[in-house]
Amino acid sequence: MTPEEFRRYGRQVVDWIADYQEKVESYPVLSRAEPGDVLADLPAHPPERGEGFEAVLADLDRVVMPGITHWQHPAFFAYFPSNTSGPAILGDLLSAGLGVQGMLWATSPACTELETRVLDWLAELLGLPAGFRSEGTGGGVIQDSASSAALVAILAALHRADGGTSGRDGITRRHTLYISSQTHSSLEKAARIAGIGAANVRVVDVDPATLAMDPAHLDALLTEDAAAGALPVLVCATVGTTSTTAVDPVPAIGAVCRRHGVWLHVDAAYAGVAAVCPELRWVNDGLAEYADSYSTNPHKWLLTNFDCTAMWVADRAPLTGALSILPEYLRNQATTSGEVIDYRDWQIPLGRRFRALKLWSVIRWYGAEGLREHVRTGVRLAADLAARIGADPGFELLEHHPFGLVCFRPRWDGLPADEADAATMRLMERLNASGDLYLTHTRAGGRVLLRMAVGAPATGPEHIEAAWRRVREEALAG
Amino acid sequence: MTPEEFRRYGRQVVDWIADYQEKVESYPVLSRAEPGDVLADLPAHPPERGEGFEAVLADLDRVVMPGITHWQHPAFFAYFPSNTSGPAILGDLLSAGLGVQGMLWATSPACTELETRVLDWLAELLGLPAGFRSEGTGGGVIQDSASSAALVAILAALHRADGGTSGRDGITRRHTLYISSQTHSSLEKAARIAGIGAANVRVVDVDPATLAMDPAHLDALLTEDAAAGALPVLVCATVGTTSTTAVDPVPAIGAVCRRHGVWLHVDAAYAGVAAVCPELRWVNDGLAEYADSYSTNPHKWLLTNFDCTAMWVADRAPLTGALSILPEYLRNQATTSGEVIDYRDWQIPLGRRFRALKLWSVIRWYGAEGLREHVRTGVRLAADLAARIGADPGFELLEHHPFGLVCFRPRWDGLPADEADAATMRLMERLNASGDLYLTHTRAGGRVLLRMAVGAPATGPEHIEAAWRRVREEALAG
């Protein structure tokens, strides 16, 4: 494709996206495709000869769009938001256009140094500890996901716990990891990947009311495991759990970790970016004193399209110790000098895209002011929704909703527990099938609850009102 | 950013990229930035108020571009190419614009089904075994990198070797992994990540002339390790090593793996896509009979911008067995039905972008014909370069150059070995500092060689000629 053709088709694609942004509301939120529908509409064999880009765009509309669930729809409440925004899309486009690969500082210094600076900016915007900034022993890096950030944290923690050996050679002690029943499943997955084993993932009790991790039980488990000869490696505390946005008591958990010499990873994938607002900065409690590693996702609620997980460590030595290997063909003067960061040593893959461009674009376009306004809008809309639910005697509400997630369900007066759960699931399925909104469920306090996560940039008060009206209607109809 | 603003800035960015494509040759290939230069030009603090997108584009030119090493420059020969192309950029742009997240089939059916179909297309284009196609027990998936593909293969192999347990709970036997000295460093890194340990990575001898893995030595090591009570897990054979594009004898290695019941992973990250040309389809030898998993990178030499590693397995059960976890909030009818693929169970992270769009765009725009032409151009230009080097009595050439990589160096007649190596390094550093071309080095057969990897879409015969002229001049000047 020549530069001239790229100009022409590029404009068509930009217009296609702008049109999509304008009409996203006209689509059913949840795709109505059945398994195999999209496959059946795609040719079984690749073309022998090239086609024009118009043909791709035509098939995008005809074949792909019916199979799209619209994450940017204002009535998408199913999962935590996966925000995209104009400046993020354009930052990503510039990254694709430049086509550089930032595995080493030397392979494009700007790719590394812009990332370092933008992560320092984000740390400042969120009021994160000074120790996370690049000028000290710590630093930030963009990972593809909070799952990978958790895995990387575990590998760094293993490296530190094992006294700096590589890949735990010769270590025969059992390693243990600490989560709660509310911790994201990626922690158990990471423990399996890292060879710790699912059986060595210890599940700490939660407070039945708040669903927050119990530091006393954590302390007891750590003591018990160490006494039994195990080597406790990492505790994961969560700020804003996936199920109900529960908040683990990081300061108390951190004090226990300190006492036992265990790595503290704080997973604030969804809620961490809320700290851009001073009134929500309590989400950082305990980080400065206790956190060894921390992650939050601008690709959820901070207007930066997936993938963009921001991860910081207080000390980068165990991280690079765990993940660095230098074969001859990657050796270069800058790396050998020790004066530069090679981000390949901070992550699982070797290659990496220039993802800092999109985060840079977002922060510059919106400014601190605009980012705060976006988060505040989500919190305010969620509070409005919760107020409506709380005022309705036919519904029960989970009182804890400090961010954008609201959990609730009809009271189903008179129904036994399992029938009430089934009725809640049927209600959700009817709502989702309607295409008017999309929500998910969870199980908390022994019952099934509906989850409505507010935070898509397109969502306004009118969408909250319409969604709540639909939920009530449908609950009455069921 | 409103849709109207997006249209306006989108056009500016498209034009910026088209301009860049037109003038990429005018930049020094290797950035002249010193450590800290880019950082020093970036404000220490994020903006309080949002700025216009013009300001971002202005700083892109002023601050970022001097720190860019130009991977798309026609004289970029340093690493294997990291191709980008118009249709790939536009496919990626569409993915960013849609902003869907394909962790589950249900979260956008088209994101999953287009990926399945496009990987089947690519398997057909490359003449890969029928068993890799989605209609049988196998299937393909897009990973971010060959590093992650190798890690995922190891996890699947561990799962199978341990009889289907999760995370090797209770397994106390030592696990072993088999590579050669020429295998990519990501395999050792993956072994460390997966808890196998660097000490349990066994290095199989290579033939000193071809640098290909010796199947007889592999057999001996496997026998020895099993006798010592270890559990051999995976053998990695490479088709087109990073250092010199050596090709391991996959059929013979596969027969050894079969006899020992060990998983065979074939890493063809760079060279695998060459199979799009029938005359290079020998790179697939042994796959149909023996390979349990296989990966190749359209993001290297097949015109699809990073990240896009294509990975296939002959049996998807151990892969999903190793990587699947289903918490309540991800439970949905489609997943429970077993009728759909949830690609989150095929990879490390949970979230995933709609990367199939760019591969689809590339295959449709170029067609089989265009892809073959691109690979053939690279092979032909490399052969031309090798012919020039081979005809020059002042240079020695590594005779093996079946793809786009040519390894060589001046003869340095009369210099002792270590001085010849140092002179070669100095030659490379002078060439790279000139900005006229960018190449790297490796160590093979006990000596330092220069590596010139041809394959950027912009590279033509004139760039090969100019590069060779510069190398000769500079070698004479040294």
From TrEMBL, chains A, B:
InterPro entries: Aromatic_deC, PyrdxlP-dep_de-COase, PyrdxlP-dep_Trfase, PyrdxlP-dep_Trfase_major, PyrdxlP-dep_Trfase_small. Its cofactor is pyridoxal 5'-phosphate. Belongs to the group II decarboxylase family. GO terms for biological process: amino acid metabolic process; carboxylic acid metabolic process. Keywords: Aminotransferase, Decarboxylase, Lyase, Pyridoxal phosphate, Transferase. GO terms for cellular component: cytoplasm. One of its GO terms (molecular function) is transaminase activity. This is Aminotransferase class V-fold PLP-dependent enzyme. The modification N6-(pyridoxal phosphate)lysine is found at residue 300.
